[in-house]
Amino acid sequence: MTRNWRTLRMRRSQTGLCNPMAHDAHALPDHCPNCGAAVHGPYCAQCGQETVHELPTLREFAHEYLHHYVAADGKLLPTLKLLLLKPGQLTLEYLAGRRQRYVKPLSLYVTFSFLFFLFLSLTSSSTPDHFVYVDNRPVAHPEQHLAGLAAAKADPDERKVLGALASAVSELQDPDKLAEFREHLLHRLPYAIFALMPIFAAMCALVYRRRRQNYGMHVLFTLHLNAFIFAVFLLGLIPAVQAHAAWAASVIFLYLVVALKRVHGGRWWPQLARGMLLGSCYVILSSVAIGAAMAASAGVQWHLH
User: Fold this and answer.
1) Fewer Cβ within 10 Å of end Cβ, the chain: N or C?
2) Can you state the angle between helices 215-236 and 248-264, rounded to 10 degrees?
3) DSSP letter (8 states) at residue 124
4) Confidence class of residue 8 from pLDDT cuts 50, 70 and 90?
């Protein structure tokens, strides 16, 4: 009798009957929580979603990502090879319908963007040098210098602008306030840069308007281009590479020209001219986005204080 009872308890524990929480977590539901279809196994026959759900852990997230992109499908390495070594080829592969073997464009961009801003937030945690250069000379107290310039101006509007700038610089001299400003900036900057991509894609469509190409093609090209840019920026965070960070702009420009030539065809000189135009527009748009993010971050900080 005792042996039969132990066997029954063992079976109940395996099926989750002795633990209501385990039963709820591991037992098959009657209907799929996603589409409502009847459930007959671990996967829904209607939508393909898993029918048994558990709260995921960070380790499970990392395992799922590595298993999906590296081990199972082997998507990550072929994607990185084309993205880094063959500009524009990843866009052509997607347009040709060969999509299953590579990481999706938006996922690729989000991954590199997330990694860059994550490591940027970690590497920028140290207290920076507060010297500001004015006329190629370091100024230890730039707020005093700006206040002096404001007092010397006769125009009241110029005095007001310089006074506000001096106040903002004075606020940022405090390490705690500077860290708070950096936190707000790093929170807003990814969204500002992401918002630029449809605009840059529209510029690409305008430059190639005679070819009557679909706007989605230019969005796809922009996603791959920005993924490469964030990959370059990510490498630039390495201390051994920071000494050569000035080459990043040249590398990105050459990548843009070669990618344009590979995707759109044509002669080199027209693609070089288009690359210079698009590159200049991209720098201007990025500066505006960064400036807007800085202004918004400073505004939030002043409002809080």
Assistant:
1) N
2) 150
3) T
4) very low
Q: Quote the CA–CA distance of 167 and 171 in Å, as a whole number.
A: 6
pLDDT digits (tens, 9 = 90+) for 181-233: 667 777 778 888 888 899 999 999 999 988 888 899 999 999 999 999 999 99
Using N-to-C axis directions, what is the helix angle for 156-172 and 142-152, rounded to 10°? Answer: 170
Confidence of residue 33 (pLDDT cuts 50, 70, 90): confident
Q: What burial letters (b/e) apply to 212-251, b meaning 16+ CB within 10 Å?
A: eeeeebbbbbbbbbbbbbbbbbbbbbeeeeeeeeeeeeee
Q: Phi, psi at residue 120, to the nearest 5°? A: -65, -40
- Structural domain span for residue 43: 1-55
Closest alpha carbon to 99 in 78, 114, 71: 78
> Contact 94/263 with Cβ under 8 angstroms?
no
Q: With a cut of 50, say whether residue 147 has pLDDT above it.
A: yes
pLDDT of residue 240: 74
Q: Are residues 264 and 232 in the same domain?
A: yes
CA 251 → CA 19, 29, 85, 260, distances in Å?
59, 54, 12, 14
Q: Is the pTM of this model over 0.90?
A: no
How many structural domains does the chain have?
3
Q: 178 with 166, same domain?
A: no
